[in-house]
């Protein structure tokens, strides 16, 4: 049975609680705030500085469902495992991200090679056109001029040919 994660002041939790609950560092949460992905709320404490709190629904939208160390949905207990020890899930995620980055690198290399291939193909076609002998030699300028003058003369005389 899935229980609700711990919440302070309704459905809002502190940045430390959010980091532990969602398995991310507080710096990651701060970066998401800076990039506009998360909206923090201020909770004023008497005599103290204001503290940021986050709506759990907003955190779920950005980071997904909270998970405990075994990969199950959060059930309200902390595993007690230090945060700096990589879990099996974290290493699997890292491998997936590494494979995804490798895939994107291969896509970029493919695009570059495809562009080079197309450029070389166009170059070969141009060379082939230049080196292929012409099937019909062009008429010398004198012959073309004589044909043109002949057509003009016939046109003035009214002959249609």
Structural category: mainly alpha
Main pleated sheet:
3 strands, antiparallel
Distance between the termini: 98 Å
- The strand count comes to 3
**Total domain units:** 2
Sequence of secondary-structure elements: EHHEEHHH
Q: Please tell me the overall pLDDT.
A: 76
Unreliable spans:
1-9, 69-83
- The number of helical runs is 5
Portion in helices: 40-55%
Q: Enumerate the strands of the largest sheet in spatial order, edge to edge or round the barrel.
A: 1-3-2
> Which oligomeric form is depicted?
single chain
Overall 3D form? elongated
- Radius of gyration equals 37 Å
Give the arrangement of secondary structure elements:
Blueprint: E1 12-14, H1 15-22, H2 26-34, E2 40-43, E3 51-55, H3 56-63, H4 88-131, H5 141-157
Antiparallel strand pairs: 1-3, 2-3
Structure description:
The chain has 161 residues and is mostly helical. The chain folds into 2 domains: 12-84, no CATH class; 86-132. It has helices spanning 15-22, 26-34, 56-63, 88-131, 141-157; strands at residues 12-14, 40-43, 51-55. Strands 1-3-2 form a 3-stranded antiparallel beta sheet. The longest helix has 44 residues, at 88-131. It is elongated and about 110 Å long. The chain starts with 11 loop residues before the first strand and ends with a helix. The model is unreliable at 1-9 and 69-83 (pLDDT under 50).
């Amino acid at each position: 049975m899935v229980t609700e994660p711990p919440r302070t002041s309704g459905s809002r939790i502190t940045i430390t609680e959010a980091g532990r609950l969602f398995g991310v560092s507080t710096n990651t949460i701060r970066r998401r705030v800076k990039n506009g992905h998360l909206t923090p709320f201020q909770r004023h404490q008497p005599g103290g500085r204001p503290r940021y709190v986050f709506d759990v629904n907003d955190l779920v939208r950005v980071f997904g469902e909270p998970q405990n160390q075994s990969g199950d949905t959060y059930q309200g207990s902390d595993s007690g495992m230090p945060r700096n020890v990589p879990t099996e899930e974290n290493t699997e995620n890292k491998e997936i991200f590494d494979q995804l980055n490798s895939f994107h690198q291969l896509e970029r290399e493919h695009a570059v090679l495809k562009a080079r291939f197309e450029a070389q193909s166009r170059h070969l076609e141009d060379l082939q056109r230049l080196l292929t002998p012409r099937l019909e030699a062009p008429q010398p300028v004198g012959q073309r001029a004589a044909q043109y003058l002949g057509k003009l003369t016939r046109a003035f005389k009214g002959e249609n040919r």
